[in-house]
Write a structure and sequence with these properties.
- The chain is an alpha/beta fold.
- About 45% of the residues lie in helices and about 20% in strands.
- The chain has a six-stranded mixed β-sheet with strand order 5-4-3-6-7-12, sandwiched between helices. A three-stranded antiparallel β-sheet has the order 1-2-13. The protein has a two-stranded antiparallel ribbon with strand order 8-11.
- It is elongated and about 105 Å long.
Length: about 350
């Protein structure tokens, strides 16, 4: 049976031009050296003092060197066979989780101690402590979305990015949930077979960013959304504390009007339902994460763990490396054997 051979990096075949150029350069240098030697020594002295391989040996050695370089180029192209594949169980590393965190100024409201943002960050840190072994990423958003941490298994790096997330992390005010969800979708890598989950944490209404359309995009890509809503659906004033004086004041807009933050629970519930995820109204009270993780997050990942497999083509570059080594040893041996015969 003939196995179908494919190359992972077929464009690297152009490296053969580099290999051919090197062989031409070696041939030119060897020919120039031979001419200089014959011009300096007479044929009789050249036969006694210097080794001069025959033309056929020089050509054969250069051909073997080119074969070695060509085989090396073939190895770099990553030849693979389609017929011989293996299925890998991805185990507990099957889940990719992107935390989408609202860092707008309304998250500084102190109706949840010490404020909504710091409490949300503490909840995320506690949550990830229960989900060790999965890759995590972080997208911060307000009026625009910024990826602070790409998907990574390095929880220390993620923790540093999470602690550094503030309203200053995003240059534009507002709450654009749809843009944040699209940024999270771009963070996922297609074709990995992993369970993919967006953990959306916000306290505000959306400002015309079409989040339901973004949720439909997530559904098409097999990504589920678990939304945690902070704040009150009835609306509440945002009270801020001056860190220098300790004085409390209400947040106002440019017109001097007091800003009221209202949680759009219906929107977050719809986003979760579109993707077959879950909505958790955190409100302003303390959260018990254990039942939330057990009921809404772990089932999504465990379902994928049982079925998540990927097919990996069998690598065949080893044969190219072996051919390169054989040709290189033959080229060296050809020159060495000719040299020993000339020395006798």
């Amino acid at each position: 049976m003939i196995l179908a051979l494919t190359f992972l990096h077929p464009a690297r075949i152009h490296l053969l031009w580099v290999a051919l150029g090197l062989i031409v350069l070696l041939a030119w240098l060897e020919r120039r050296g031979h001419r200089a030697l014959t011009a300096f020594l007479s044929p009789e002295m050249l036969a006694r003092l210097a080794w001069a391989p025959t033309r056929a040996r020089r050509v054969a050695r250069l051909v073997l060197l080119f074969v070695a370089l060509a085989a090396g180029v073939a190895a770099l192209m990553r030849p693979q066979t389609e017929g011989a594949t293996e299925t890998l169980d991805l185990g507990r590393r099957a889940a990719d989780i992107v935390v989408v965190l609202d860092v707008s100024r309304s998250m500084l409201a102190e109706d949840a101690a010490p404020n909504r943002l710091e409490r949300a960050k503490a909840e995320v840190a506690d949550l990830l402590g229960r989900l060790q072994g999965h890759r995590v990423g972080l997208v911060a958003f307000a009026g625009r979305a910024v990826t602070l941490c790409p998907l990574t298994p390095d929880y220390a790096f993620f923790g540093n990015a999470l602690r550094a997330a503030t309203p200053r992390s995003v240059s534009r005010g507002g709450t654009r949930i749809g843009e944040a969800l699209r940024a999270a979708l771009r963070a996922f890598q297609p074709g990995t077979g992993a369970a993919r989950l967006i953990l959306l944490i916000t306290d505000g209404e959306d400002h015309d960013s079409y989040p339901k359309e973004a949720a439909k995009e997530a559904l098409a890509q097999g990504v589920r959304i678990v939304a945690l809503g902070f704040g009150s659906e009835a609306g509440s004033e945002i009270t801020l504390t001056d860190p220098q004086t300790g004085a409390k004041r209400a947040l106002t807009d440019r017109g001097g009007q007091v800003v009221r933050s209202r949680l759009d629970g219906a929107l977050l519930r719809d986003l979760a339902l579109v993707t077959e995820g879950a909505y958790v109204p955190a409100g302003t009270a303390a959260l018990d994460l254990e039942p939330i993780v057990a009921a809404h997050i772990k089932p999504i990942m465990l379902e994928s763990v049982r079925r998540a497999t990927r097919v990996v083509p069998a690598e065949r570059f080893q044969w190219c490396v072996l051919a390169a080594l054989v040709a290189l040893v033959a080229a060296v041996g050809l020159g060495a054997s000719a040299g020993r015969r000339a020395a006798r």
